[in-house]
Amino acid sequence: MIKVAVLGYGTVGSGVVEVIESNNAEVSVKAGEEMHVKYILDLRDFPGDPYEDRVIHDFNVILNDAEVSVVCEVMGGVGAAYQFTRQLLEAGKSVCTSNKELVAKHGAELLEIARNKKCSYMFEASVGGGIPVIRPITKALTAERIEKITAILNGTTNYILSKMEKEAADYGDTLKKAQELGYAERNPEADVEGYDACRKVAILSSLMMGKNVDSEKIYTEGISKISAADFEYAKAAGMTIKLLATSEALEDGSVLAMVAPAFVSGEHPLAVVNDVFNGVFVRGNMLGDVMFYGRGAGKLPTASAVVSDVIDCARHIGRSSIICIWDREEAKLADVAESRKRFFVRAKASAGEKAAEIFQGCSFVDAGRTEDIGFFTEEMSEKSFEEKSSAFGEALLSRIRLA
Ligand code: HSE
């Protein structure tokens, strides 16, 4: 029998217990042995909960119980979660997690400990929630050199942008509604400012490069400056606006990673990834393009991904099931200022001539608006765009990159 412990009995933790118990026949057959949740660690008690008898408050009970071979860390944060994970791996117990913050920050180190101790550190649920993306990248696309990843990795912001597009609504009102409906947190900063997507793309980038990509060094911009007017121009141009997390392996061995809103052609597969869904578009040098799509958040989809990792660990007791390469060596991040792209600019209605003069070769978009003008620049470096924007001065109302 595989005995499992769950650290944290919140949304994902209760989902993990539910998946293991409700799908016990399927899970046990695939694990090769019957699976049982022996402990649930939480600071709180859960009177009346069907699994209240398994709730404990002392982590050492789990650490010192030789029967427990796999532990699900679904508490979040990088404090106690980090200490517990390290101790468990050092003790030879496999750990499966949805904690993207911890994976992004200490993934390389925790993988190294797991390998040395012949156990596993698995994190399928940390990126894309229930979408299988880590396992396909590390176990299925192994013959590929992954060249680029372009992804929608945050459900909250994708929901807000989809609503803004559909209802021609502004950011502030849409965020408020999303909070009322429980789709956005009361403190939405990590989602709307792009930090959550940044951690997830740092994980994907590290797997793509085989070296550690520091999330704190990734250029990150959120969606709080996007307006209904920007969407009018996007629509007129046959495009939409998405918060894209991108990562490209450059020929000089560096990685160009960023999170920022982008104009996306209506024909791009990511343009139809709407509401709380996520999409991960991967380009391999032999395979070409492949896309993963599904529920990027939510109790049961995320828990299902955690339990898929538990099954993997159960099938590899006494050895590591990790085959990904994610060294502690730091990957070199390319300078975003030197990267080249086109930009959409929305400007004051009176600035048409100045726009044509400063952004030579730009093409105007007719959205039928009199309040402002919109145009696409030619391709240029970010640095050059910034210089031209300074010369354009207060005429510039907003600017969004083209994917
Ligand atoms: N806040 C995250 C999102 C949850 O909105 O995608 C899943 O990581």
Task: Describe the overall structure.
- By secondary structure, the protein is of the alpha/beta class.
- It folds into 3 domains: 158 residues, Rossmann fold; 157 residues, Dihydrodipicolinate Reductase, domain 2 (2-Layer Sandwich); 64 residues, ACT-like. Chain A, domain 2 (Alpha-Beta Plaits), CATH 3.30.70.
- It is 36% helix and 25% strand.
- The protein is built from 14 helices and 18 strands.
- The strands form 3 sheets. Strands 7, 8, 9, 10, 11, 12, 14, 15, 16 and 18 form a 10-stranded mixed sheet that branches. A 6-stranded parallel sheet has the order 3-2-1-4-5-6, sandwiched between helices. A two-stranded antiparallel ribbon has the order 13-17.
- α5 packs parallel to α10 and α7 packs across α8.
- The longest helix has 17 residues.
- The model has no long low-confidence stretch (mean pLDDT 97).
- The structure holds L-homoserine.
- The site of L-homoserine has 8 residues, from α7.
Name of the top-level CATH class of the largest domain? Alpha Beta
In CATH, what is the homologous superfamily of the largest domain? NAD(P)-binding Rossmann-like Domain
Q: Identify the bound ligands.
A: L-homoserine
Overall mean pLDDT? 97
What class would the helix/strand composition place it in? alpha/beta
Q: What is the β-strand count?
A: 18
Percent strand equals: 15-25%
Q: What is the name of the CATH architecture of the largest domain?
A: 3-Layer(aba) Sandwich
Specify the helix fraction band: 25-40%
Instruction: Using the coordinates shown, work out and report the CATH topology of the largest domain.
Output: Rossmann fold
Number of domains: 3
Q: From the alpha-carbon coordinates, what is the Rg to the nearest angstrom? A: 23 Å
Outline the biggest β-sheet: 10 strands, mixed
- Shape field: elongated
Low-confidence runs of at least 5 consecutive residues: none
How many helices?
A: 14
Separation of the first and last Cα atoms:
50 Å
